[in-house]
Structures are given as C-alpha cells and as structure tokens.
Amino acid sequence: MTAVTKDYKLFTPLQVGEGLTLKNRVVYGPLTRARSDVHTRVPNELNAVYYEQRAGAGLIISEATAISEQAFGWYGAPALYNDEQAEGWRKVVKRVHARDGKIFLQLWHMGRQTHPSLNSKGEVVSASATCYEAPHAKQQGRERA
C-alpha cells in the first residue's frame, strides 16, 4: 500500500464475531447479474469469474439466489434448492476462497412479485393474496442484447 492509504481503517482486517475475520472492511454488495443458466438456474463459469474478480473485497454478498422454483422473479437469476445448483455454488465459492475471499449467499424469494411463467407449475407463492400490478421481469421470447 502507498503511504497515503496504509493507515486507512478501510484497508485493515476486521473481526466479525468469533469465527470470521475479513481481510479489509470493503463489502461488495449484491448486484443481480442474470448470468446463471436460464433453465437450470445453476451458477456457471461466468458467475465464478465474476465473483473471483471481486475477491479482493473483505466480504462479497452474492446476488439474490432463489430458495425454490416458486421463488423466482428475475430471468437468469441463480438458485440453491437442488444438488446441481449446490455444486455450481461450490465452484464459485472455491474460486473466491482460492483468492482469500469471503462470500455470503443472499437467499431470496420474490413472493407476490414473481411471475408464473418463471416456474414449471405456474404458481405464485406468497404470504399475501394481493396481486402485484407493476411490470414483471420475465423472458419475452426473444434474444437478450
């Protein structure tokens, strides 16, 4: 580090609780990337590279990751509710850890904001029976730019 930055607390380790030490105090917040397989929702090489490139942060918080098939509301979002998806995330985490990074997974359920076209059962599962009236983020049957 340069003389200008070496004394900044931002770049010093941080102990979080008893079991987690961050190498610095930079937290990379969650951003929806829509890079996972659109059919299986398995994180892939694009996801692994993306998070590996950000492993210099003290902590990465992953993009929103669906907890069930009925949890989706975003095309191309990753999931973690079956073994194939778990293996995809294992590969991502392994790459982050290889660069001495830490990563937390943001669990996600869209509730009434999901769209029935995003799951095979066509169900919207929510704690509220109130319909969501705003536009939905869903596949429109055309190629993405």
TrEMBL record:
Pfam families membership: Oxidored_FMN
NADH:flavin oxidoreductase/NADH oxidase N-terminal domain: residues covered: 9-136
InterPro entries hit by this protein: Aldolase_TIM, OxRdtase_FMN_N, Oye-like
Source taxonomy: Eukaryota, Sar, Stramenopiles, Oomycota, Peronosporomycetes
One annotated GO molecular function: FMN binding
Organism whose genome encodes this protein: Globisporangium ultimum (strain ATCC 200006 / CBS 805.95 / DAOM BR144) (Pythium ultimum)
The name this protein goes by in its record: NADH:flavin oxidoreductase/NADH oxidase N-terminal domain-containing protein
Parts of the chain that traverse the membrane: none
